[in-house]
Amino acid sequence: MIQILFFFFAAIAVGAAINVLVQKHVLYSALSLILMLTAVSVLFILLQADFLAVINVIVYAGAIMVLFVFVIMLLNLPEDEDGADRLRWLKFIGIPLGLFFLVLVVTTLWNLEASPGTQPQLVGSPAAIGQSLFTDFVLPFEVTSLLILIALMGAVVFAKRDL
Amino acid sequence: MIEYVTGSEFIVLMIKIFVIFGGVMGALAYLSWLERKLMARVQMRPGPTRVGPFGLLQPIADGLKFLFKEDVIPTHSNRFLFIAAPIVSLVPALLSFSVIPFGPSLQITDLSVGLLFIFAVTSLGIYGIALGGWASNSKYPLMGAIRSSAQMISYELSLTLSVVGVLMIANTLSLAELVTAQQSTWLGIIPRWNIFLQPVAFVVYLVSAVAETNRLPFDLAESEQELVAGWHTEYSSMKFAMFMLAEYANVVTVSSLATIMFFGGWTGPMFGPALLQMALPTVWFLLKVSIFIFFYVLMRATVPRFRYDQLMRFGWKVLLPLSLANIVVTSFVVAIS
User: What are the structural domain ranges in chain A?
Assistant: First the structure.
């Protein structure tokens, strides 16, 4: 049952991700991205990471993508932007980088040892995530918060430059 | 958590789903009657009287009318998104009922992150409004959609932050556990409801919830005098009805959440024979929720609409700092005790 669900939602996620790139219209790309994020959230639930799944939907699908859709609606871009032409040189960097990433993923999976049958219980619960955030990962957590704060201040400075 | 259900559990679950969704859909239809009747009485009009006694069959007549009306799709609209928008609006609104505890056992599923689940699905509801307004390809719907998105993003922040204080006191995200945490009493008479511990959070929650559901005095997305009907100007027949149902569903959801988080959910005095005791919690819950719904309708009838800049200033400069201050004070108190 879980396997069927996994393959179903994994297929949706991959299909939506491809659709993001294929679609001509920016709004459809953004909507496909929302579908992809939601499908990935279901995969998180299948991995018993309920908290992560819900936060993924709240932060990415519910907040960040709303802003994207909002901006696209305001700009009202024409159907076939020829913006792809300006990014032609990216092809020459993108293909090697993509291949490198693929090799990285494959070697990681290849060297993966057989995982133990029993998982630690409640690894995805809010309490467990909070515990590990404030003990083992406190430095990355605080550095990220600082980064977000700086980005926030940067946004204010850019928006209110003439004030 | 993934759990496998056995045959008999599956049947019980199916019955629960039918009872809850049947009840909710019926209640949503009759909310339109309640709103019209109540508004009318406030304005010294009789309201619907012709269809059935006290106009009680009016929702059924309205539903039939919606089904038989011509379904207009404007020629310059984006057809796919125009049809998808009402669905995107209604489905998340109904999904949140799957975790709301209507009684000790009348709950479809108790997620360990139930509260966040509701916030997640309701935050997806914005897309229905935004896409509906954009796909109509007409100026008033677009204006309404843009206003509504900006408003909902702004007020979602204070809505979500206002409940953090309650969560810190209750120490759980599960809605059923939130209710059981408020079961006992102080000094034997005062119920241990979170409203007494978190009054600031309750006020912030209530105001942001009204804004989040696009109701008066925050209904700038569809303000009739300026935008015809806002984002659903171009919608007709059943698609319009779906937008209406989604709005009412959101009203019921935020009212239920207010009951669960601040007023002890289904807790209440228990008396009488065993059969009555089984039904009483649900009665208390529905009673508390209907008080909120009455409040919503009466507020619509009495308070004038905000101006847009007032709305934004109020959200960002009053409600958000207030909810942040509430979090700081509450965490300080929780840490000391």
Answer: 1-79, 125-163
Chain B residues within 8 A of A5 when measuring between CB atoms: none
Q: How far apart are CA B56 and CA B37, in angstroms?
A: 10
Tell me how close the Cα of B110 comes to any Cα of chain A, in angstroms. 12
Please give the mean pLDDT across all residues of chain B: 83
Spatial CA neighbour of B233 closest among B131, B134, B140: B140
Partner residue opposite A50 with nearest CB, options B112, B131, B150: B112
Q: Is A73 on the interface with B (CB under 8 A)?
A: yes
**∠ at Cα A84 (A82, A87), nearest 5°?**
135
B113/A51 touch (CB, cutoff 8 Å), yes or no? yes
State whether B146 and A70 contact (CB < 8 Å). yes
Number of domains in chain B: 1
Contact between residue B222 and residue B231 where contact means Cβ atoms under 8 Å apart: yes
pLDDT score for B1 = 45
Q: What is the pLDDT of residue A100?
A: 92
Closest CA to A26 of A64, A101, A102, A80: A80
Of B150, B165, B153, nearest to B203 by C-alpha is: B165
Q: Which residues does chain A have within 8 Å of residue B85's beta carbon, measured at their own beta carbons? A: none
Q: What is the pLDDT of residue B74?
A: 79
To which residue do tokens 């009747």 refer?
Answer: B37
Nearest CA in chain B to A48: B1
Give the minimum alpha-carbon distance from A94 to chain B in angstroms, rounded to a whole number: 32
Could you say which DSSP state residue B191 is in? Answer: E
Per-residue pLDDT reduced to its tens digit, A6-40: 889 899 999 998 888 888 778 888 888 888 998 99
* The overall pTM is greater than 0.90: no
Question: For residue range B211-239, what is the model confidence (pLDDT) as tens digits?
Answer: 888 777 887 777 777 777 777 777 878 88
State whether the Cα torsion A141-A144-A149-A150 is positive or negative: positive
Q: Which residue of B has its CA nearest to A53?
A: B117
Q: Which domain holds residue B102?
A: 69-336
What ipTM is given for this predicted complex?
0.76
Question: Given B112, B124, B130, which is nearest A61 (Cβ)?
Answer: B124
Closest residue, chain B, to A63 (C-alpha): B153
Q: What is the CATH number assigned to the segment(s) A1-79?
A: 1.20.120.1200
Bigger pLDDT: A46 vs A140: A140
The residues of chain B scoring below 70 in pLDDT are 1-5
Inside any domain, residue B141: yes
- Whether residue B328 is contained in a domain is answered as yes
B173/A48 Cβ within 8 A: no
| Within a domain: B9 | no
Predicted confidence at residue A83, as pLDDT, reads 55
